[in-house]
Amino acid sequence: MTKLPNINTNFSDWYNDVIYQAELVDNGPVRGTMVIRPYGWAIWEQIQARLDKRIKETGHQNAAFPLFIPESFLKKEASHIEGFAPELAVVTHAGGKQLEEPLVIRPTSETIIHSMFAKWINSWRDLPLKLNQWANVVRWEMRPRPFLRTTEFYWHEGHTAHETEEEAHAEVLMMLNEFVDLVQNYLAIPVQTGIKSENERFAGADKTYTLEAIMPDGKALQMGTSHLLSQNFAKAFDIKFQDREENVKHPFLTSWCGATTRLMGSWIMTHGDEKGLVIPPKIAPIQVVIIPIYKEGFIDSVNQAAEKISEDLKKHNVRVEIDSDQSKSPGSKFFKWELKGVPLRLEIGPKDLEKKQVVLTDRLTSTKQILDIDTVADLIPSILDELQKEMFEKAKKRMISNISEGEKLSDFGPKIDKESKAYKTGWCKSSECEKELKKYKATIRCLLDSKKFKECFNCDKPSQTDVLVAKSY
Amino acid sequence: MTKLPNINTNFSDWYNDVIYQAELVDNGPVRGTMVIRPYGWAIWEQIQARLDKRIKETGHQNAAFPLFIPESFLKKEASHIEGFAPELAVVTHAGGKQLEEPLVIRPTSETIIHSMFAKWINSWRDLPLKLNQWANVVRWEMRPRPFLRTTEFYWHEGHTAHETEEEAHAEVLMMLNEFVDLVQNYLAIPVQTGIKSENERFAGADKTYTLEAIMPDGKALQMGTSHLLSQNFAKAFDIKFQDREENVKHPFLTSWCGATTRLMGSWIMTHGDEKGLVIPPKIAPIQVVIIPIYKEGFIDSVNQAAEKISEDLKKHNVRVEIDSDQSKSPGSKFFKWELKGVPLRLEIGPKDLEKKQVVLTDRLTSTKQILDIDTVADLIPSILDELQKEMFEKAKKRMISNISEGEKLSDFGPKIDKESKAYKTGWCKSSECEKELKKYKATIRCLLDSKKFKECFNCDKPSQTDVLVAKSY
C-alpha cells in the first residue's frame, strides 16, 4: 500500500487509487471490463439485498430474460436503436458457425422483455404485470472508469405494463421514491429529483424521471431513472389487451433502474477522505472491526474478550470482524481498516481489560470514546445509526454548497468548469438553448419543480422551468 | 391450460408441457435461450439462497468476473480449449468496430479468474484464496431443452487456490458434500457420488468428482461437479507464490459448481406426477396455498379466518399465499395449484368455520386431514418437514429400482436403452472398453467406491473399479 493522492487537489487520481488499494475492484483483461473483488461485491450485495426486498414488497416479481437479443428487435423502436447503436457488442459467430442474424448483447432489456409481454398479455386480467431482473448488461465504453463507466456492468431493471396511463405514471413515481429512499437513507447521499429534457431522456421513453447527486468535484452523477414508456414500445412490439369494456388496447409500459454498480462510485466519491473509504454503516459489510491489542501473557484473555463482544454484537445483527492477525501491528491494522472505510473500530488490550473498558473510534470523525466493556455491544447499534445520519447531513451540506444559482450561461458557464459547481437556472425549453451548454461540457441534469428564474439561461425568452445544469460523470 | 401428456407413457412430452403450463419458463426469441418466469425464478432463488449461505459459511467470498474472455486465454490450457471450442459464442464487433481480438463469452471462468489469481497471489500469506461467483454462462447447444440444455444458463462457480494438494483435495471433497446436502436435503433427490473417467472429466482437470441422479426415465443427470485442477491451470497462467520456506511454487487449484439452472429440470422430473409439479417444501416459494370457499353472507368471515391463519403461518416462517380470486371456482383453483406443485392446500369455508376446522391436503399423496382451526398453523411446519422426507424416500426407492447390476455390456447394453435403466458393472479402466458404451448411447457416469465385479464389462481383463453406466441428459 502506498500513500493516496491528495483528495482535495487531485480528486480523480485519489478515486483511481483508493478503489484498487481498498481492494474493491481490479481491471479485467479486456479493456473497459472490471473485476469486482470480494470486498466490493459484499457492499454491492448489501445494496442489492435492500432494494430487492423493497422491489418485492412493492408488488414486483423477479424473472430472468436472455442476454442475447436479435439485432432486428432493437430496430423496432426507432429512437431506441438510434440511442444504443454506438454502444452495442455483437455476437456474429457461435457453435463454430457464422450466425444468420447477429445477436446483440443486451444494453438494456426493453425489446426482449416486450416481445415476451406481447405473448403473455391478452386481457386486462393479465395486468398489471410487474417484473424485475438482476442482470449484467453491456455498453461499449470509449472512456471506461471502474464502477462509473464500464463495458459490462451489473444492475436491476424493472419492466411493468398497466391498463391506464395514470397507473403507469403512479408506478414510475413510486419506484422513483424507492430509489430516493435507497440512495438517501442507505448510501447517505442527498439527491435532486426531476424530469429529464427531451434530449437527455431514455431512448424510446415519453418521460424520464431521474435522481441526480452532485459529487465533491461538482459533477453530477445520475443515480437512477424511472421511465414512463407509455405506448411507444407497446405499439412497436404489438402488445395488446382486451380491456374491461372488451376494447382492444395497447397497455402503458414503464421501465426503471435504481441501482447499478455505478452507484458504487457515488458513495466512494461522496464520503471518502484522505485516509480512504468511508462506508455508510447500512451498506458496510463490516460495520465494526475489533482490534485486539496483544501483549504476551494476555493473548488468550484479550481474544476471549474480543470474541465475547463479537458474539454480543452479532445478537444485535451488527456485522463484525475480529482482526486477530498476530503478525501485524495494531498501527498497520488501523491504517488498513481506515483505508477500507469500516465505520467503527473497537480496540481492546490488557489495560482495557483491567479497567473493564474498550476504545471505540468512528471512521467519520476519528472521535475516540472509552466505553464500558459490558454494555458497548448494546450501544453500538444506535451509534451506527447516528453515524449514518451524520454522513448524510455532511454530504447534504456539501451538496448545497456545490449548487449555485445563475441567470445567464455566459456568466456562470465558465464557472461550471473552473469552480466545479452545478447551477440552478431558468430555461425556455428550446433544444437550441440546451445545446449551448455543450460549450462548457455541461448538460441539463433535470427539470426542477420550481420556477424561480424569469428568463432562459441563453435567450431572451421567458423561462418555462428551472433546471439543474452541471458537468456529469 | 390443457391436459398434460401421460407421464408414464410419454415422459418427455410431459416435461415439455408441464414447464410451460406451470409458468416456470418460456422460450426466448433466440433459439436455445430461455426466459425464466417469476414462479420458476422464485424456486431458483430458494436454491440459490441456501447454497450461497453455505458457500459463505464454509469460508468463501463472492466476487464478479467479466463476461468477456480474450480468445487467446482459452487457448492457454490445451485440453480446456479442445473441450469448449465447439460451444463458444464469439463477439467480433463492438462499439461500431471490428475488434482486434475476438472475445469469447464465458462458457466457464477458469481462464479469466486464473489470470487474476496470477496478479493477486504472491506469497503463502495470500492463500488459501477461496472465491465464488453467481453468473450467467453461454455454451452453444445443438439440441436445446429448457433448463436441461440451454445456450445461456445461470450457475455459481467456485474457484480456489491452496498451498498444498492435500488442502485442495479437502476443499474439493468439502464442496462435493455441500452439493450432496443441497440436492438430497433440499431438492429431495438421492444421488450417487464418484469420480469421472478421464474421458468425462472437466477439460483441464486432474480429477472431477460428480454427483449423479437417476431420473424416472432411467437417464442420469449430472447434478454438480467438484474439480481438482491441481497445477495445470496454475502453470498455464503462471500463478506462483513464495511458500513458507521461501521456495517459489505453483498453487493447487480447484473449481466447482453445485447448482445450475439445470437443477430445475431435476426436481421437476424426479417429483412430478400426472397432475403436474410437486415441489419439495424446502424450495417451494409457496409452501401453503389457502383457498377460501366463498358463499354469500360468509365472504368476510371466511377471508378473515384465512388471513388469521396466514399471519400465524408467517410467524412460523412458512411461505403462504391466499388465493382470494372470487371470479374462479374452488375446483379450478385446486387444479391450478396442483399443477404448480404447492406442497399443502388449506381449504376453509363457512361450514369449517362453524366446526372450527380446516381441510388440509398434501400435494404428494392427496391425503386430506381435518384439523383444528386454532392449532393448524403450529402443526404445519412439521407436516412440511415430514413431506420433505417422504419425497426423498419415494425418490430413493425409485432410484434403487432404476439401477440394476450387469456383468457384460453385450447382455445389459440393450436394456439400458429399452428398459430405461442404469447399471452398475465392472471396468478395466481402458478407454477402448469405455468407448463400447457409445453403441448403447451410454457413458460411464462415475467410478464407484466399491469393487464388486470381477471382470470388465467389455473385455476379459479384471475389473479395476465398479462404475455406474447410463444414458444421460
Q: In terms of quaternary structure, what is this?
A: homodimer
- Tell the overall outline of chain A: globular
CATH class categorisation of the largest domain in chain A: Alpha Beta
First-to-last CA distance of chain A:
27 Å
Structural class of chain A: alpha+beta
- Characterize the main sheet of chain A: 7 strands, mixed
- Strand count of chain A: 23
Give the mean pLDDT of chain A. Answer: 96
Q: Uncertain segments of chain A of ≥5 residues (pLDDT<50)?
A: none
Total of helices of chain A: 14
Say which CATH homologous superfamily of the largest domain in chain A is assigned: Bira Bifunctional Protein, Domain 2
Q: Give the largest interface.
A: A-B, 56 and 55 residues
* CATH-level-2 architecture of the largest domain in chain A: 2-Layer Sandwich
Helicity level of chain A: 25-40%
The structural domain count of chain A equals 3
CATH topology of the largest domain in chain A: BirA Bifunctional Protein, domain 2
Strand line-up of the largest beta sheet of chain A: 3-7-8-14-11-10-9
Radius of gyration of chain A: 25 Å
Describe this structure in words.
In chain A, helix 2 (38-57) runs antiparallel to helix 6 and helix 9 crosses helix 12 (376-402). The first copy, chain A, folds into three domains: 11-271, BirA Bifunctional Protein, domain 2 (2-Layer Sandwich), CATH 3.30.930; 286-387, Anticodon-binding domain (Rossmann fold, 3-Layer(aba) Sandwich), CATH 3.40.50.800; 403-470, C-terminal domain of ProRS (Translation Initiation Factor IF3). By secondary structure, chain A is an alpha+beta fold. The first copy, chain A, is built from 14 helices and 23 strands. In chain A, helix 9 (299-315) links the parallel strand 15 (288-292) and strand 16. Chain A starts with 10 loop residues before the first helix and ends with a strand. Chains A and B meet through strand 2, helix 2, strand 3, strand 4 and strand 5 of A and strand 2, helix 2, strand 3, strand 4 and strand 5 of B. Strand 5 of chain A pairs antiparallel with strand 5 (89-94) of chain B, so a sheet runs across the interface.
